[in-house]
Amino acid sequence: MNLVEVREGEANLLVPDPASYTKDGKFDPSWAPVFYNPRMRLNRDLSVIMVKLNRVRRALDAFTASGVRAIRYSLEGKAEEVNFNDIDPIALELARKNAELNGVKGRFLNLDARAAMFNARYDWIDIDPFGTPAPFLLDGTAAIIRKGILAVTATDLTALEGAAPRACLRKYGSVNDGLSSSKEIGVRVLLGSLVRAAAVAERYIEPMLSFYADHYIRVFVRVLEGASKADQSLRSMGFVYECPNCLYMSTSKIAVSNCPKCGGRTKLAGPLWLDRIEDQTLLENVQQEVLSGPEYSKKALEIVSKLRMEINFPYWRLDKLASMLKVPMPSRTKLFQCLREIGRHVTETHFDYRGFKTDANYDEIVNCVKVQS
After folding, report:
1. What family does the entry list (predicted)?
2. Is residue 365 one of the residues assigned to a domain?
3. Binding site annotation covers 113?
4. DSSP 3-state assignment of 103?
């Protein structure tokens, strides 16, 4: 395996040389013998901050590959103990070399990820597989210690966003017809799947930080115990429905098949998580860490800053509303001004540059789009 040395955060890493694994002048990290994707740095930057803020004692990187995540958890996150696991012995050997290169000590496990989760009592388990995390959610929520944190990445967005509805139902147990706010729907479907997985063992989750970026979803949840709290968590599940004709959108505890505005057949997504997807107090601390760390990406600050402002309701798509109304799309500035003049709260959303979030009702939104177009 041909290797090159790169630097990420405070870590020096040996990774497969992209030049040796290109095809027709293109390179995909999955073509290399060991996976390392520099585009996931934002994911790792925010994860490092979460490890640091939560004073993690024993962390498991269940899909370690090059070892970059666990190494940074030790160097920058100050985790007391890091555990590297990969079912591929070649990847595990490279992780070991990288750990030695950075003076990081830890345990190296060559196990199936689900077996590794039960190998010790972890207060942080990182589930970042190639593809869907669905097969690992039940074991992850059961294996983590009480008040421990699960950090989960999902890249199977065709399922989570509703482009592959049968896959979404099969993997995550949710109907998903592909709504305009598909990126946020994906986050809420994943959180809903975690809620149900935890409830099997009379546990429940508290979302800490959830975001969508660069074609993946990342969620951090704290796992706690208690049958009554698990029941309460399940009551925070429900549906988002949207009318494809008039774009009316709302949430409900039960599936709504017909639009209350025009009577059209609705598109559905659910059951999914309807409550908050972040802890606002924690977000403030994360934002301060991003600002104090010159090595963190600008994208991290943008995401966290917008999340701090977003209300707990799926976003609207300005371009789709204008198209439905057959009017020119107004500027976001004018739309926001119109909504604020009638006393409504409105913000951008990190999920989609074409989207916005507001506590205004459907008629108020439609009127402002028309007036400002």
Report:
1. Belongs to the class I-like SAM-binding methyltransferase superfamily. Trm1 family.
2. no
3. yes
4. coil
